[in-house]
Amino acid sequence: MKKKIFAYTMLVLAVLGSIAFAGEFKVLRVVDGDTIDVDFNGQKERVRLLCVNTPESVHPTRAKNTPLGKTASRYTKKALTGKTVDLKFDGKKQRGRYNRLLAYVFVEGRNFNVDLVKKGLSPYYTRYGASKAYDREFKKAEQKAKKQHLNIWNQKNGNTTPSPSLTAALATTLFHGNKNSKVFHSPGCRYFDCNNCTRVFHAKNEAHQAGFRPCNICRP
What we know:
Elements: H1 2-17, E1 19-32, E2 35-40, E3 43-49, H2 67-80, E4 84-90, E5 101-107, E6 110-111, H3 112-118, H4 135-147, H5 164-169, E7 175-177, E8 183-185, E9 199-201, H6 204-209, E10 213-214
Parallel strand pairs: 3-5, 8-10
Antiparallel strand pairs: 1-2, 1-4, 2-3, 4-5, 5-6, 7-8, 7-9
Helix pairs in contact: 3-4
């Protein structure tokens, strides 16, 4: 019995030892469902979330962008925009081929990477290796999403329609405000995700109170 306890303890320590804790950082911008920009020790750094791969929403080839990609992007924006997050690296490799940080993102103690898989907005993405620290959590989340036919697993809708539960979660409309022009836009507007649209409002009156005016094109 003691040998089993000792072996288990050593396994836990080995797993924890493979995780590098980076600390807390402010989210500057959500690029898409699985990519964010953070203030990393005074510098803007792009972070690619580990073990997830959400559908495209900002691909240069517009035909590759999908409705579910936009849904995943909206979900990440609602969850992370303006938040302070913990970044945790899986082992010694902290950067990918494009020099982006590769990390698990924790918001309010929740592993957001696993959350994306649980919502069916990403598969458990293991092309570059399984998670050293959260393999069990990812597998469990993916199995649950598949069983419930959530989003990317919703073959009936051709993988293009958000699940009702996610639609309800996103029922609160987000408005994006351009920090330079002081104009705010509604989802679907071609300026909604502009580079300077970093202010997020949950209601029109919130935008008005902050000194922003509605867009003349989308008329939110």
